[in-house]
Amino acid sequence: MKNFNKTFLLIIFIAFTAFKSDETISLSGDWKFQADPEDRGITGKWFSGSFKDKVKLPGSMAENLKGDEITLKTKWTGSIYDSSFYFNPRLAKYREPDNIHIPFWLTPAKHYVGAAWYQKEVIIPASWKGKRIILHLERVHTETRVWVNNQEIGMQNSLVAAHEYDLTESLTPGSHRITIRVDNRVKEINVGPDSHSITDHTQGNWNGIIGKIALNAGSPVFFDDIQVFPDLKNRKAKVKLLIRNTTSKKVSGKIKLSAKSFNSTVTDETKSISADFSLAKSDSASLELDLPFGDGMLTWDEFNPALYKLTATLKTKHAESTRELQFGMREIKIDGNRFLVNGRPVFMRGTLHNCEFPLTGYPATSVDEWERIFKVAKSHGLNHIRFHSWCPPEAAFIAADKVGLYLQPEGPSWPNHGPKIGLGQAIDQYLYDETNRMAKNYGNYASFVMLAGGNEPAGNQVQYLNKFVEYWKSKDDRRVYTGMSVGGSWPVIPKAEFQVRGGVRGLAWDKRPETVSDFSAAIAKFAVPFVAHEIGQYCVFPNFEEIKKYTGVYRAKNMEMFRQDLRDRGMADQARDFLMASGRLQVLCYKHEIEKMLRTPGYAGYQMLGLQDFPGQGTALVGMIDAFWEGKGYVSPEEFRRFSNSTVPLARFPKFVFNNNETLEAGIDVFHSGVSPLKDAVVSWLIKDSEGKVLSSGRFDAMTIENANGIPVGKINFPLASITRPARLNLEVSVDNTLFVNDWDFWVYPEKPEFVKTDVHYTTILDEKAKAVLNRGGKVFLNAAGKVVKGKEVAMHFLPVFWNTSWFQMKPPHVTGLLIQDKSPAFANFPTAYHSDIQWWDIANRSQVMILEDFPVGFKPLVQPIDTWFLNRRLGLVYEAKVGKGKIIVSSADLREDIDRPASKALYSSLQNYMASDKFNPAVELSFEVIKDVFVNPSKEQFKAYTKDSPDELKPGSNQNKVKP
């Protein structure tokens, strides 16, 4: 009997797997191929012949090494704002045919824009006779036309959903030839050359077919669409079904629905419901059924992403069709200026996904890869992802449902720099078509909570987008809608349910840094939730170790060029230090910008640009992780979560630099966006010195902390009189018995710093007197503030480079932080790290920098501003040297004894004490003339843009992607 059972089970398993393989024929593998650069295939009836070349699908032409070599005449899809690359003599070697290094974005192995043909022979089994047969192409770039044998089936164009063709009438049992023509040119439907759905700035304008490629066979009576609309209040889901009959006979039957949870520790299952239906021949019908849930109904959110699987079965006398889909019992609503998820206020802590896939050049279609990406985002305390002008494949929604992330996919368009909305162009209808395809294919996923039409449009925006929002509000209430994600100068769309806007973001660090102010006044005019558009954009120096990761279809030729240029400038050995120092300033800036939003009552969320680097638009290294979603080494997810999490302690510092005759008075707040209020929460604080010794501590009374921003907890007062030497202190605030903790460094200096008696000659002019002092072996301190000529064109702010200097044609700031020789005894009385920190603000902000172009190779200043990597000039703020028989320190920051800035005065004191000591022994000798030249002659090499307008004024073939209104 045991052997019989094993045999019986084996027969059942074989029958089941055979049935499955009959239902789907995978078309992955080898395909015949022919490129069609001159567009001759249709008139030449290539579909009736056979191709000699081969490629593997899923994949792109570039992956298969098909297409054109990269040249200076490559017709890229994307705007180029800085055309100086094509003309700059210094970059001439990177324009040589065998050494092309495009600086604007990553470089693919091959490039191709045009039509290409893919062909495969298929054998249809006899068991498929009478079944409905669908050709499924999960993601194609962009337009497809399909032939079976010599018969054309049709054409489709979608950047967001699978291209599906009904081949029932053409595929009889036996052998057939399927030919697919893929065209990735920007034609009448122009979403914009910079749209992340097509542009070379990010994924690339690839030609190919990716994801699932298959023939699917099923019942000719089937579910054409199933959409699930949760109703949490009434513990039910309204299920809307569209049933289609493609036979030539009238049919009737029964529908059965049920749902069961599948990914949570607690299991819940609905009872089955059923309904009868009847359809005339070649007819369709819509049905609505209420699926009730019991007391054990599970809801989905970021904390508990419980999911259900709906099983829908359709039975007729001669056919049966079953469809399963994933959904969650989740609602999102707007309450004034707040988002409510399942009735609970939620703050959106997000980043952008710009379709960065440097190994393939196209988006991942596997759930595992999207889970990896989303888990990285959540490990940094985020709960939200915006997809800038593109929509990811279905795998992303499946993964986000599992991980618990709120998604904002967008219509695949940046209708600017060419196309415009609201003027009757093809893009107007296409955005409706594409967003409808998104709703149909991905609308059941709980993570799909927000929708925008695209990014930063031009044209008749307000009228068009008001109608767009009204259309979607009335059509589908499972998510909330805005017009497009825009900067602060775009017009407001009155009908938008929430705003994704710039203009209320950033750090006002032209003034002294503090954490008291917030954005309340700026958001007061918005009655709906305000989500900050593309916050941050703080640059770091390139991580050249990343170059070796580019083992796929792309090469980081941009970063290779920057690395070689740094070598040519004699600073290759400082690359890692530049990365780490600029990285720490970047983290500081993101921390302060995010905390300012978290302490602003009524602020609804932010979307960073970004957590990860953006490899295009001139190379925008704005992320704390790279384009592979991997860390760079200067900040951990745990550190980032301290200031970007569901709960964040906050401190309101009036300033961060104090004299010791003052008292630190700081308000303590808490931001909370949790699964429930924090009841009987106790907030503690402590102040430590740089050795970890606790100088003061305290606790506030227990309280209930509701979901809100900037909830006041109490105040701390810490007199600083006991701090008698320059010190870096740290305030740490935590919520007891939780993992929520945050901290801030602040600095305390003696009110009257010690200035030892010294024979140092202080001067603001490098004159003959200074020269005489040096020649006789004396010491000189040169305060050269305001006197720099060689370097006056370099604008240094305390904040780093924004986005990148190429994209904005060298718009300041040009410096991305300071590299400080912190181990030097010059800083013995000025506590500092190796990187910019807030105590450097009043020293460095708006100070002049010196270009040290004639200084010896390997010369390293005590304080070295880090230049934009497009120019890689060796810069100095403070340096020391031997000159003749003497020694000198030169500062282009204003450092003096009578200055009314505590940090500047303290640094000057430390340098003076250093110069008075026997430790003052500079390693490098310079001539008096080399030093003086910085204050007499301009830089030998000046930046020249070669263009007065943007984008593309001088780019070869610059009008290739433009559409006139």
TrEMBL record:
Keywords: Glycosidase, Hydrolase
Catalytic activity annotation: Hydrolysis of terminal non-reducing beta-D-galactose residues in beta-D-galactosides
Domain Glycosyl hydrolases family 2 sugar binding: 26-215
Domain named Glycoside hydrolase family 2 catalytic: residues: 332-482
Start and end residues of each Glycoside hydrolase family 2 immunoglobulin-like beta-sandwich domain: 221-330
Region listing for Disordered, in residue ranges: 946-965
Matching Gene3D superfamilies: Galactose-binding domain-like, Glycosidases
Segment forming the signal sequence: none
Domain of life: Bacteria
Top-level enzyme category: hydrolase
Residue stretches of biased makeup (Basic and acidic residues): 946-955
Pfam families reported for this sequence: Glyco_hydro_2 (PF00703), Glyco_hydro_2_C (PF02836), Glyco_hydro_2_N (PF02837)
E.C. numbers: 3.2.1.23
Family the UniProt entry places it in: Belongs to the glycosyl hydrolase 2 family.
Protein name: beta-galactosidase
Annotated organism of origin: Paradesertivirga mongoliensis
